[in-house]
Amino acid sequence: MRAFLLEVVTSAGARKGGRTYWTEQAARRDAERLVRTGKAAQVRILPVNVSDRPCADISTESEVRHDG
User: Fold this and answer.
1) Is residue 66 domain-resident?
2) What does pLDDT average to over the chain?
3) Closest by Cα among 35, 40, 7 to 21
4) What is the pLDDT of residue 61?
5) Which of 36, 45, 52, 62 has the fewest CB atoms within 10 Å of its CB?
6) Does the residue 67 lie in any domain?
7) 16 vs 23, which has greater pLDDT?
8) For residue 10, what are the domain limits?
9) pLDDT > 70 fraction of the chain, expressed in percent and rounded
10) Residue 68 contacts by C-beta under 8 Å, 6 or more apart in sequence?
11) Separation of alpha carbons 54 and 58, rounded Å
């Protein structure tokens, strides 16, 4: 699956992460809002690939299992 993250650049520096956007349109809309409201000087939209295989399985009935 494909998803998108924002890299937000402000006067304090840059940070990646926050929300995961499942469409580029949703990421673009939020990036434009951040710039328009002055919460960011620049925003880069970064594509990421999301695997459908978990790296950990956590439940109330078992201990944590790590795969990979």
Assistant:
1) no
2) 89
3) 7
4) 73
5) 52
6) no
7) 23
8) 2-51
9) 90
10) 53, 55
11) 10
